[in-house]
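for the recovery benchmark. tokens below, seq after
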């Protein structure tokens, strides 16, 4: 009897980009990381691309790309972020699919995902089609092949969605066992008698509700269109144990739990397969990726008695060998994370995080109704306005994924030329791009996480409201019609557990986030006071070209005045702006900005404002700015979030230096007294211990920030930490230590024959070990194994001839391996 194991990981983060900037802004809750994408990448996505196998002594004996041995999907919006911000991990994921094709008979382990995790049974027909097409096209552009399978958000399914999948060439998808309703044997007159099927009569349906379906085989689902699609129902109990019951404490546990699902009662080739959030392996469960690695290693090598006779497979390979024997009918409108079907995304069904006793989710239905109302109004605008330019607006939307993947102007022009009735001037091309962006945001506002959690003011729900706001902004720019008041009125009828209604988070959090070309220009103007910008700057999704710029300083006051051309790289919207910025002191900033029509000079305005400032006539400067730029002033609060933090750091630099100096003075002037306390084995007074801890941690962080690492200074700080038993913030220090080690290993990768560099990194790791600082060594292990594979053999040959440099290199290389805990 053939036995196969397939482990599927659903790797996904909701799109977190600011809809007006197309980048993720800093998220304080993710500190010390910039945002949650960065944090989860460090904890999960990166480690799984190069996961460690440890020997019995705890040393790293090998590094495995987990993705190449499992089945997996990545959300397209997450892959887009990884491509921009962590290309090493991104390329590791793509490489894994190629490796899996070699391992699994030409079948890649990656499958696609509906584009932005929309709950498909709740989507209208046009959105179903676009979500599937965008998911497939995005996958094809990245992985260089068509997907065999696709992941449905929350495995939420209905027959209409399956029909769209089949119509687009998808062979299979993965569902939860409770989504199966009934099965019957597929009868073929050429079939040999099947003893296992004797319990089933021909053409007789059998109830498999309440997760009673046998998950060890695929099933054929016949669709209303006459097409069919294969469905795999994962093993529910094992998947739950992996996610919630501690199975990932060891790879051996993992193997035993999987192997326990095989039974001699079955005579068909058995596929034991599980599906969980991919973040289970490393983010939800620390070092869970290593348990997965060791489990895969044991199965592939057969080194575990429990894994004897078991073969790793992916869904495509298994399906090629073993076609479905049974037909299945599903429950329309069902999912894996809501026992009520799909109520979690439309009703107060009772599904919630369980973290807020007494809260209700009565807001879900009215929020969805508000979104549906908005979607339909936007669709009408899209059809009416788009029909003026586009041959088929909806076909153009389906193909718009080409533009999202490649915003190069030639590529965009090619797309527009194919889809428009006639060649359009630039201003009409901008209108078409705005229409299509309006539609993109109208789909992003349905990202499932917006309804998943407990409260309408949560960050996930505010995020989808921001997409709705962006779509409405495009609609108003295109037609002059404002939909926002009506949308807010609908939100007033939604319940909130925290605020008066769902309208409050929109007013308080979404509206202040809105950006137009003027605010983008104001951000540039204000930040240019303390940033040294080049003449041409890429600023989020804008390009800013400086046409003129002057800055005048009088005491602590500064005035800047200039002219810029700012262009949206998304819609090609372009304007020339003139501005003046008055910085009086601290956070008191006054920025005036206006659009400058072609041919209008800014020289006279600038001269008037500058002369008044140089004479110290500050009230008059402010009056002139109001006259020339209008009463809509911009200030510190209009800076984007990351720049606000930079500006605050700049403002607090003086006070912080003063505070640092006071703590350092306490630390240094009382050093003899502290030694006296230590000699008597008496703990330091709290006032002294705080000053010591603050000063030493500051010094340590400065070491990490310095490009030229001072080893002796690092040793001295380490001695002080140990001497005074300083309790440091290990997570924060570990983050910066990781950055330092990664930088050093990148340098080593480029200078791999330089023996002294190996010694330097070894000393740093030795110091970290003495302080119990545990940096993430993902990049370090990658580089070390690469050097061992590519350079060490040549060094061994040279050392055999008593080459002194090679002998030193091998010695230092070995010592570094010891501190990296790599098997020699």
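predicted aa per position
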């Amino acid at each position: 009897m053939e036995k196969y194991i397939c482990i599927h990981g659903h790797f996904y983060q909701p799109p977190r980009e600011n809809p007006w900037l197309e980048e993720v802004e800093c998220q304080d809750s993710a500190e010390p990381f910039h945002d949650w994408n960065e944090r989860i990448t460090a904890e999960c996505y990166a480690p799984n691309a190069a996961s460690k196998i440890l020997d019995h002594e705890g040393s790293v004996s090998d590094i495995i790309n987990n993705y190449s041995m499992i089945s997996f999907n990545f959300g397209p919006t997450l892959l887009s972020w990884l491509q921009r911000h962590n290309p090493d991990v991104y390329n590791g994921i793509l490489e894994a699919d190629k490796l899996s094709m070699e391992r699994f008979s030409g079948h890649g382990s990656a499958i696609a995902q509906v584009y932005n995790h929309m709950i498909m049974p709740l989507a209208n027909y046009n959105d179903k089609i676009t979500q599937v097409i965008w998911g497939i096209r995005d996958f094809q552009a990245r992985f260089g092949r068509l997907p065999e399978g696709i992941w449905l958000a929350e495995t939420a399914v209905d027959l209409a969605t399956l029909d769209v999948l089949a119509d687009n060439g998808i062979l299979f998808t993965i569902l939860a066992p409770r989504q199966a309703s009934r099965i019957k044997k597929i009868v073929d007159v050429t079939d040999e008698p099947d003893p296992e099927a004797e319990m089933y009569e021909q053409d007789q349906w059998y109830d498999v509700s309440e997760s009673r379906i046998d998950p060890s085989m695929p099933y054929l689902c016949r669709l209303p269109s006459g097409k069919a699609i294969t469905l795999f129902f994962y093993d529910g109990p094992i998947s739950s144990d992996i996610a919630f019951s501690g199975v990932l404490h060891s790879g051996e546990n993992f193997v035993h739990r999987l192997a326990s699902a095989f039974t001699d009662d079955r005579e068909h080739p058995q596929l034991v397969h599980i599906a969980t959030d991919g973040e289970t392996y490393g983010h939800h469960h620390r070092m869970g990726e290593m348990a997965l690695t060791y489990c895969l290693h044991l199965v592939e090598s057969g080194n575990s008695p429990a894994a004897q006779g078991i073969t790793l497979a992916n869904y495509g390979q298994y399906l090629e060998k073993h076609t479905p024997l049974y037909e299945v009918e599903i429950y329309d409108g069902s999912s894996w994370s809501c026992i009520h079907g799909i109520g979690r995304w439309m009703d107060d069904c009772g599904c919630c995080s369980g973290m807020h006793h007494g809260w209700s989710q009565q807001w879900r239905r009215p929020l969805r109704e508000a979104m549906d109302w908005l979607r339909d109004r936007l669709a009408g605008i899209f059809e009416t306005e788009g029909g003026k330019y586009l041959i088929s607006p909806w076909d153009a939307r389906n193909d718009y994924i080409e533009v999202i993947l490649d915003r190069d102007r030639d590529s965009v022009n090619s797309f527009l030329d194919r889809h428009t009735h006639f060649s359009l001037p630039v201003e009409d091309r901008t209108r078409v791009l705005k229409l299509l962006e309006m539609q993109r945001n109208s789909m992003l506002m349905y990202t499932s996480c917006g309804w998943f959690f407990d409260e309408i003011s949560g960050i996930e729900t505010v995020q989808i409201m921001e997409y709705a706001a962006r779509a409405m902004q495009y609609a108003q720019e295109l037609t002059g019609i404002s939909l926002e008041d009506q949308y807010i009125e609908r939100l007033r009828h939604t319940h909130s557990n925290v605020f008066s209604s769902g309208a409050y988070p929109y007013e308080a959090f979404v509206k202040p986030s809105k950006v137009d070309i003027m605010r983008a220009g104001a951000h540039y103007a204000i930040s240019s006071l303390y940033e040294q910008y080049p003449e041409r700057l890429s600023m989020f999704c804008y390009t800013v070209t400086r046409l003129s710029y002057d800055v005048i300083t009088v005491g602590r006051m500064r005035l800047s005045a200039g002219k810029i051309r700012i262009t949206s790289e998304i819609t090609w919207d372009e304007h020339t702006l003139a501005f003046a910025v008055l910085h009086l002191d601290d956070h008191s900033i006054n920025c005036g900005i206006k659009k400058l029509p072609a041919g209008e000079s800014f020289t006279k305005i600038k001269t008037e404002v500058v002369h008044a400032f140089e004479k110290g006539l500050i009230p008059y400067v402010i009056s002139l700015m109001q006259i020339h730029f209008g009463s809509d002033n911009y200030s510190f609060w209009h800076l984007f979030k990351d720049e606000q933090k930079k500006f605050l750091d700049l403002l607090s630099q003086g006070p912080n230096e003063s505070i640092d100096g006071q703590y350092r003075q306490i630390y240094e002037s009382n050093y003899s007294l502290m030694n006296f306390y230590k000699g008597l084995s008496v703990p330091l007074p709290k006032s002294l211990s705080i000053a010591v801890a603050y000063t030493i941690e500051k010094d340590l962080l400065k070491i990490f920030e310095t490009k030229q690492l001072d080893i002796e200074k690092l040793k001295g700080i380490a001695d002080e930490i140990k001497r005074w038993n300083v309790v440091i913030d290990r997570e924060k220090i570990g983050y910066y230590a990781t950055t330092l080690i990664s930088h050093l290993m990148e340098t080593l990768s480029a200078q791999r024959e330089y023996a002294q560099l190996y010694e330097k990194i070894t000393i740093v790791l030795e110091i970290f070990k003495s302080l119990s600082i545990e940096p993430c060594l993902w990049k370090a292990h990658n580089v070390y194994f690469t050097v061992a594979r590519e350079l060490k053999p040549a060094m061994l040959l040279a050392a055999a001839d008593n080459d002194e440099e090679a002998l030193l290199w091998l010695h230092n290389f070995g010592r570094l391996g010891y501190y990296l805990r790599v098997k020699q």
